[in-house]
Structures are given as C-alpha cells and as structure tokens.
Amino acid sequence: MNFITKTQAFGLIAVLTVAGCAELEPLTDYRPVVDPERTNMPRFERDLEACRAVAVQVEADYRQRQQEQMGANIMAGLLVGAITGAVVGSGSDYQGELAAYGAASGMAAGAAANDYSYDLVTYGPRRVVDRCMAERGHTILNDIGRG
C-alpha cells in the first residue's frame, strides 16, 4: 500500500491554497466598458476612482471573511480526516500513517471548500464598481462585474 509522505501532503496543501488565491487583475486596474462617444470621460474617470474606492473596501471584507472561513474549514478537515484515518486504520500496522494521510486529506479538502467562491471574490467587487458607475448615470456595456 502506497502512502504519500507528510512532505508531499503539505506540498499539496500549499499548492491548493496558492491556487485558490489567483485573480484575473487587480481591482485598481478594473475598467467597465462604456461607449467613449456617449460618455463624458473626465466625469467617468472621477466616478471610476470613487467607485473603485468603495469596491476596494468590499474586496477587503470579502477576503477577510474568506480567510476566516478557510481557517475554520482547514481545522475541521484536519480533525475529521485524522479521526477517520485512525478509525479506518485501527487494528492495522498502518493506523498512524492512515491518520496522518486522513489529516492531510482533510486539510486539503478544508482549504478547497470555501463558501466565498472564486467567482464571488473575483467578480463581486467588480460588480460593485459597475453598479456604482451605473447609479452615477454611466451606461455599462459589459456584463456586470466582467469588464
């Protein structure tokens, strides 16, 4: 029976965690699509800066909640995985290894399971920018949040 080493398990967890943090572009570079022929561009730029400031705060709140949720999920996954591995391996020579494997698997699953999905974190603040701009009288041509 092949088991992954603790180093491999923690490497997997690190890769999953970093992959979950990927983002398309910084919010400060996000620009909704508008028709420049029908838009007062100086007013657009002023409004865009104001709307980005609101969205940056929203993004910070999303990320904080995401990190808190991920930490709780990792701990729960670690405990459930370790207990499951120990139970499955009880009475065998591999109980300790199965408990470690279960803990590593549970941590990875906990890191991947997140109520604040990639779509929410990536597009949620962009939706705020688009809606804010629309409320200020600008006609947004792109799908809301996907400039």
Number of helices: 4
How far apart are the termini?
Answer: 50 Å
State the helicity in percent bands. 55-70%
Low-confidence stretches: none
Oligomer status? single chain
User: What is the typical, i.e. mean, pLDDT?
Assistant: 76
Shape assignment: rod-shaped
Q: Tell me the structural class.
A: mainly alpha
In N-to-C order, the SSE pattern is HHHH
Major sheet description = none
How much β-strand is present in the residues?
under 5%
Number of strands: 0
How many whole angstroms does the radius of gyration measure?
22 Å
Secondary-structure map:
Layout: H1 6-19, H2 41-88, H3 95-112, H4 118-135
Helix pairs in contact: 1-3, 2-3, 2-4
Structure in words:
- This protein has 147 residues and is mostly helical.
- The protein is built from four helices and no strands.
- It has helices at 6-19, 41-88, 95-112, 118-135.
- α1 runs parallel beside α3 (95-112).
- The relative contact order is 0.20.
What are the key terms here?
mainly alpha, Glycine zipper family protein, 0% strand
Compact summary:
The chain is an all-alpha fold and 147 residues long. The protein is built from four helices and no strands.
